[in-house]
User: Which sequence fits this backbone?
């Protein structure tokens, strides 16, 4: 009986440790973060399920091996829980070579832009940053 209780807990601990163990070795100074912001506003729409399941995987595929990982944020509020969010969603691509990223996006620009209509009526704002510092705390 104890084995039935312990085994699921050990499995969960293993999965969590693998997942959280990936980020520190992946994110390093000198990498680039491409941030895609979708501003909120009257009449703005955003289909998060499509973005998660179709759009971001499509763009990630275009970026290829240069992509180390990507993230998607569903923005839930502004500065306080009662403030409306400034953005509806934010996507991030983490890459090692910004020139290769630009080439991949440029070669597939039409497919990327034409897919916007499938999940949003928002013109995204793109910001590219070079990661300067990575600090992990326990």
Assistant:
């Amino acid at each position: 009986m104890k084995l039935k209780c312990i085994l699921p807990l050990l499995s969960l601990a293993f999965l969590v440790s693998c997942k959280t163990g990936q980020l520190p070795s992946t994110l390093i100074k000198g990498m680039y973060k491409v941030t895609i912001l979708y501003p909120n506003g009257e009449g703005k729409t955003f289909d998060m399920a499509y973005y998660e399941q179709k759009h971001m995987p499509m763009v990630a595929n275009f970026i290829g091996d240069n992509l180390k990982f990507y993230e998607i944020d569903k923005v839930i509020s502004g500065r306080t829980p009662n403030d409306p969010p400034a953005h509806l969603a934010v996507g991030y691509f983490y890459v090692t070579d910004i020139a290769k990223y630009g080439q991949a996006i440029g070669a597939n620009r039409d497919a990327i832009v034409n897919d916007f209509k499938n999940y949003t009526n928002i013109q995204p704002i793109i910001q590219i940053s070079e990661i300067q510092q990575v600090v992990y705390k326990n």
